[in-house]
Amino acid sequence: MMLLRTVILGALLLAAPALAQDEEFSGDAGGAMRHIASGFVCPLKLAGFERDAVGQRSPELGTDYCAYSALSGVYGTIILMPLPKTYDPRDILTPEFTVQESAGGRVIDETVTTLGGLPVYLRTYETANFETLKYRMAFASAATGAWAVQVILEYAYPRDKEGETAFLNSAYAMALKEIGPVQSKP
User: Fold this and answer.
1) I want to staple 42 with a disulfide (CB 3.0 to 4.6 A). Which of 1, 23, 33, 57 is the partner?
2) Bridge partners, 126 (sequence order)
């Protein structure tokens, strides 16, 4: 009897993350996952990337994510966060910057550019070099609707530059379409 209870408890604990995902996202017949709170759709495929996972990233901040990868080894994560009263993309991304810098990452670019029709803050780090490739991490953030949409990409330059650009443009175009323009605050 004790073994049966242990097995049942273990099964429930293993199922808990999957159940938590269902609270944040709802699926459709085509494999897309809609973020319930924002309306953002995490399609099964986005700009040549395939979705690996969706879920809760940081419950205390109310952030959720969609994770993607491409066959070439490029990884992209879209993070959805309720828009803070004072939106500063640098402040929001500072914890990520701290990790990169403590691991030896070097800032090679910081700009505000238009991606997918939205003004997007973008900072890129170079993390390593191997033969002709430079390994990079790109951190992007934009406000849309009542949400801050962040994208983190890990890629090799110059091999994956086209994929990086396509993913960023597609993610922010989808955010603008599904979530809408920034809502003015009273």
Assistant:
1) 33
2) 106, 136
Q: What is the spatial distance between Cα 113 and Cα 127, in angstroms, rounded to a whole number? A: 22
Order of strands, sheet of 75-82, starting from the edge strand that comes earlier in the sequence: 45-46, 49-58, 63-69, 75-82, 147-157, 133-144, 118-130, 106-115
CB atoms inside a 10 Å sphere around CB 105: 19
CATH code for the domain in which residue 134 is found? 3.40.1000
pLDDT over 90 percentage in the chain: 80
The pTM assigned to this predicted structure is 0.85
* 184 part of a folded domain: no
132: in domain: yes
pLDDT of residue 7: 34
Of the candidates 39, 151, 35, the one whose C-alpha atom is nearest the C-alpha of residue 92 is: 151
DSSP strand E in the chain: where?
25-27, 33-35, 41-42, 45-46, 49-58, 63-69, 75-82, 106-115, 118-130, 133-144, 147-157
Which residues, at least 6 apart from 110, have a Cβ–Cβ distance to it below 8 Å?
Answer: 122, 123, 124
Would you say residue 22 has pLDDT above 80? no
Full residue range of the structural domain in which residue 122 is found: 2-179
- pLDDT tens for each residue of 118-142: 999 999 999 999 999 999 999 999 9
